[in-house]
Structure prediction request, 121 residues.
Amino acid sequence: MVANLRSAARRPCAARRTSRAACFVSVQMSPQQIAALGRTVVDALVRADLVELPAGSDAAAKAVADQFVAYFKAAATLEADAERLADEHLRAARAGAAGIDRRRVVQMIKEKLASERGLPV
Prediction:
């Protein structure tokens, strides 16, 4: 059973007979997890003597957490845009799309959009 799950995880969506929406897994972090991540980053920077904070690190941790939230929102928008553009592209190239790997098209579009938007992927 475990071997079947592992091999299924490596197969593309079409081979697993699942919908496209079910194929793309998005990791959701709670606000508490993001705040903890921000505190961890700030604490690590302070311990490594890379930054000195004159007062408590709460404001810095909140600023880092806010940057993570902004990045996650931009990444989700990027993913949705790449999916939409890939669907449009494959619909337009329907006649010759028999051998086109949709996942690869999405990845290439996502890389291009990320470089245009200055977003690290």
User: Anything to note?
Assistant: Residues 28-117 form one domain. The helical segments are 2-10, 13-16, 20-23, 31-47, 58-92, 102-117. Confidence is low (pLDDT under 50) at residues 1-25.
